[in-house]
Task: structure prediction
Amino acid sequence: MTSSNELTGTAVLTRLILRRERLRILIWTIAVPLLVLLTATSVKGLYPTQHDLDVAAEASEDNAAAIAFNGPAQGLDTLGGEVAFQVGTLGLVMVALMSTFMTGRQTRAEEEAGRGELIRSLPVGRHANATATLLVVAGMNAVVGALVTLGLIGLDLPVTGSVVFGLSFCALGLVFAAITSLIAQVSENTRVVHGSAGAVLGAAFVLRAVGDIGDGTVSWFSPIGWVQKTRPFAGERLWPLLLVVAGTVAAVAATHALSDRRDLGAGLVPPRPGRPRAAPALGRPLGLALRLQRGSLIAWSCGVFLAGVAYGWVAVDVEDFVADNEAMEDLITGYGGADLTEAYLSQSLLVVALLGAGYAVQSALRLHGEESGLRAEPVLATPVSRDRWVASHLTVALAGSVVVLTAAGLGTGLAYGLTSGELDQVPRLLGAALAYTPALWLLAGLVIALFGLAPRAITAAWAALAACFVIGLLAQALDLPCWVRDVSPFEHVPHLPAADPALTAPVLLLAITAVLITAGLVGFRQRDVR
Result:
């Protein structure tokens, strides 16, 4: 059992985390509820009558791909049930990622950077930092759950279902914070911690999907399945949350037990020794950058490929799905073209391209991570110029963006080609996905500009990506003005295959990208390296 001495300093560390991470906390706790509520608003506009809800419910209840992607088909003949179906799984994944990143950053990353040792040199208990982190993340999840609940009630959805829906967000965030804290005791590498926690989340998603497609039994082995078993807006029940409480308590207890059995800064599993001699490619900046980002590129490519498969698999049923729903038909055809299937495929490729843009931003941000981690200075102390070092990581970001879009196009094309019997659609949809390359490169260029000119504002790149998501997914449903839509580079890319090809706008985006990269390089030459 944890003694009081082991928790000494928890309150001070909690205030320190809140003070230092206030901006990141604010962004997460606003962005997640905002995405959920904007989507809920658009769903409400798409199904204005009971007839529309009934048609959508009938189309979704027997659609295995939709259930695997969105969650169990519960109460789909009600607006609340449709909202939970459309945004529930996506929102839950986002809140799990929020908890994972925040917990990994405050625990393992602090030890890896050496700040954990500095703090432990003060009168601070062994478990104080982990406990303070869990308290902060629990507070973030509570805020997210409360905002989701209040927002849904404001949309005139039933109070009981809204409360249970909000509780499900809070509960899943808590259990993934505890799981990440436990994983942080095992490995001494932050990227391994995030990757392992992401793998747990992926396994939870797959188990939930397999269970929901079947009789639901397998879903009980997934934390996502636990919270969705509360059935918001479909005969609510709270007792499945006891599984969340038990899982969280067990993970926290295991965290404290494992923490007592390892040295500060080390993990229970020591890293594998490297090769006696590095590969020749690692002696060059580009080879090193590719090695550092190889895992991230593979993970993002697999993720968008699976997303493309999910979207492409249901494309053949889209006309049945929107039958007699003019609002849904108008929304889909708003992306161009009179053919519903082609318009749907255009929208699907936009979504997977937006997901792929996450890789472009993260990959370009690696420069900032290398500098903040004090690993850039030793490299730049060698005969490697600043321009060459930046160019190596930028090359990986730009080329990797093409790889990610290729995976997205192949996933969508193969799934649609197999289900429709038209495999000649594969190269066509692959080309349509690659058309988003200038948009991804512009976001990468924005990161380089911020890195060189205003490194303290580097997180604005994620805000830019979030804005692209909101504009790309909800601009039409929210009737956003044209000048707001024009802010997103994705709005200037021809939405193939429904729209006609065009070159003027993509060339302009590439020109802006070149200006941003040049400005970033000039800025980086003239500022100090931290």
About this structure: Residues 379 and 389 are 8 Å apart (CA to CA).
